[in-house]
Amino acid sequence: MMTNAIIRELVQRGHEVTFITPFTLANENLGSNYTEVLIPQYNFWPTVLETTKINTVVELTNVPTLKLLKLFYIMGLESTNFAFEQQEVLKLIHAKDKDDKYDLLLVEQFFNEGALFLGHLYQIPVIDIFTFTFANYMSSLVGVVTPWSYVAHGWKPYTDRMSLLERIDNVYCSLTEELMRQFWYYPAQDELLNRHFSKHFDKLPTIKQLERNISVILLNTYMPLEAPRPLSFNMIPVGGLHIKPAQPLPTEMQKFLDEAEHGAVYFSLGSQVKSSEFPPEKLKIFLDVFRSLKQRILWKFEDDKLPNKPANVMVQKWMPQSDILAHPNVKVFISHGGLFGTQEAVYHGVPVLGMPVYADQYLNINKGKVAGYALGVDYRTVTEEELRYSLTELLENPKYRDTMRRTSRIFRDRPLSAMDTAMFWIDYVIEHRGAPHMVSEGINLPWYKFYLLDIIGIALVIIIMPILGLLLICRRFQNAKKSKTKSKRN
To answer: Which of 18, 200, 226, 240: disulfide with 35, CB 3.0–4.6 Å?
Structure first.
């Protein structure tokens, strides 16, 4: 969604764009300056099923954070390997005319660091597009130390005000991921590059070396959705750039919302989590609560039929989410807490009832709860009474909408729009040949220097050596004293 929006804008502004993607934009007729390299879509489901032993995405809510992280790293390795096997990608890698072919490599970064190899081959700067918000492992990526004392891991439901136990868990999770990347994931990505290309190129860079070619990172976030934290010059928040001016809704849907005298509730769990996969007892809870409301319900439901559907409910397999949230009669958004949907809700000022399932969704909803524009329920344990209370509270208590409107004003108030900001920095990196003056020297330090482990080691030696020396002197003195006492007795 974010990458596609950037690609469309670049083409519209006259850039020559070659887009490697499994999701075609050809039907949009973007223009003669758009070239598409279409590759097959990687099927991640077999890996998900094998690693987690679940049957539906909804069940990911039961998977522990570190196991989920390992799953995504495995998927990243497999999808990178899959991409390197595609003939369309290999043609670009082995092309003879690489000189001055491109000015910039844009990479959507989601556990696919091997894609940075193209920047090395074509000798061009790289801009990373992070479709999620900050990640703690970005520390070594940009050369800025992330303080785990108040910066929560992106997949933990903690704010910047953590309790002692939360900080312990946050440090454990962040440290484990850092070690996982350094000693397993990076070597595995390096092995992939060597397996595919060692016979074709004299010397291959490591993934860590490829990451040093990243000029700018475009982050899918913006205040106040993110608490203040250390940033480097080349970390650019552009959250919400995918949001466009509202378009007219389909006639039937427009009429359904226009005639919602008491307002409407929009219910969608995104593209991956399907409410049609709810067990019957869970579906009954939602249907009974919706039936009892005077508001109308727009429900993104992925099946053709919904048994026992109340009269005030409209279901469709797909809905234009941002355009729906822009309708003045939409009062509450029931969401899984995905980042794009959260940004759209904030942009349009619609309070959120969150039902997170996995990854950053818990954090996104918890931030909304702390800020005062959201409530949350647990999919695994939610009851009819809890769901009804939460919806009623959001619908009838004006403090949530007032808070969300204030949040929306902050989110919208920028010197440049999110898209114009992204375009500025893309042009800037091209104009200044990678803009190396924006990149911290910290990225060139080995991890033990970056985290000052060598200094800490020296400090420990300086502290411990005198203590050990004193203990040794005391022990010798004690032994000498014992020996003298024994001699007197003899």
So the answer is: 18
Q: How many CB atoms lie within 10 A of CB 202?
A: 5
Q: Which residues contact 142 (CB under 8 A, 6 or more apart)?
A: 217, 232, 234, 235, 439, 440, 442, 443
Residue 178 Cα distances to 150, 185, 215, angstroms? 17, 10, 22
Higher-pLDDT residue of 489 and 280 is 280
The pLDDT score that the predictor gives to residue 483 is 67
Q: What's the rounded Cα separation, in Å, for the pair 398 and 312?
A: 23
Encode pLDDT of 383-431 as tens digits.
999 999 999 999 999 999 999 999 999 999 999 999 999 999 999 999 9
pLDDT greater than 60 at residue 490: no
CA 319 to chain CA mean position, Å: 23
Cross-sheet strand order for the sheet of 126-130: 105-108, 126-130, 214-219, 235-237
In the chain the first and final C-alpha atoms are separated, in Å, by 91
Distance separating alpha carbons of residues 461 and 224, to the nearest angstrom: 44
Please report the pLDDT score of residue 242 as a whole number: 93
CATH top-level class of 251-412: alpha beta
The pLDDT of 333-350, averaged and rounded, is 93
Residue recorded with tokens 């860590």? 208
Q: Residue 482's pLDDT band (boundaries 50, 70, 90)? A: low
CATH of domain 2-241+417-445: 3.40.50
Q: Quick one: pLDDT at residue 66?
A: 87
For the chain, the C-alpha Rg in angstroms (whole number) is 27
Please compute the mean of the pLDDT values over residues 58-81 and round it to a whole number. 87
Average pLDDT, the chain: 89
The β-bridge partners of 334 are 267, 353
Read off the tokens for 14. Answer: 């006259």
